[in-house]
Design brief:
Largest sheet: 5 strands, parallel
Distance between the termini: 36 Å
Oligomer: single chain
Helix content: 40-55%
Shape: globular
CATH class: Alpha Beta
CATH architecture: 3-Layer(aba) Sandwich
CATH topology: Ribose 5-phosphate Isomerase B, Chain: A
Strand content: 15-25%
Number of strands: 5
Radius of gyration: 15 Å
Number of domains: 1
Bound molecules: D-ribose
Order of helices and strands: EHEHEHEHEHH
CATH superfamily: Sugar-phosphate isomerase, RpiB/LacA/LacB
Number of helices: 6
């Protein structure tokens, strides 16, 4: 992925230290990164950061998001409530790359209590270097997911 494409990073208290480490890493690699907090490791709520990250992507201010909490699970559940967000927990580089190539994942969720910093760096790099593959079957599947969002909006 082009390094000029903006990346937004967010974390609750559980992910605060890993977020800061990844922020330094991405800045060193030359990425344009936005940090939406948390700005300290006091207890906070992961849905608040999921929302901030989702809003930056939906508004177009960022192209990809990274959310970190203790497990990555809460963040992914919260982020997927926002229309246009495709978030998943990936604790291996294969899923982080393939999730973008096949599924157009735009938010990577990490569990700071599950993986270490070195693996997190590799996963983030795999996520950011991948692009959605322009294949009919991937586009067909994505279209079905986008239709779910539309159908759900009409029901509520
Ligand atoms: C916070 O203690 C923890 O529940 C949160 O960071 C996350 O793991 C939720 O999925």
């Amino acid at each position: 992925m082009e390094k000029t494409v903006k990346v937004v990073l967010g974390a609750d208290h559980g992910g605060y230290h890993l977020k800061n480490a990844l922020l330094d890493y991405l800045l060193r690699l030359g990425y344009d990164v936005m940090d939406v907090g948390a700005y300290n490791d006091e207890s906070s709520d992961y849905p608040d950061y999921a929302r901030l990250v989702a809003e930056k992507i939906i508004s177009g201010e960022a192209k990809r998001g990274i959310l970190i909490c203790g497990s990555g699970v809460g963040s992914s559940i919260a982020a997927n409530k926002f229309k246009g967000i495709r978030a998943a927990v990936c604790h291996d580089t294969y899923s982080a790359r393939q999730g973008v190539e096949d599924d157009d994942m735009n938010v990577l969720c990490l569990g700071a209590r599950v993986i270490g910093e070195a693996l997190a760096r590799d996963i983030v790099k795999a996520f950011l270097c991948a692009s959605f593959k322009d294949k009919d079957r991937y586009k067909r599947r994505l279209k079905k997911i986008l239709e779910f969002e539309e159908q759900w909006m009409k029901r509520s």
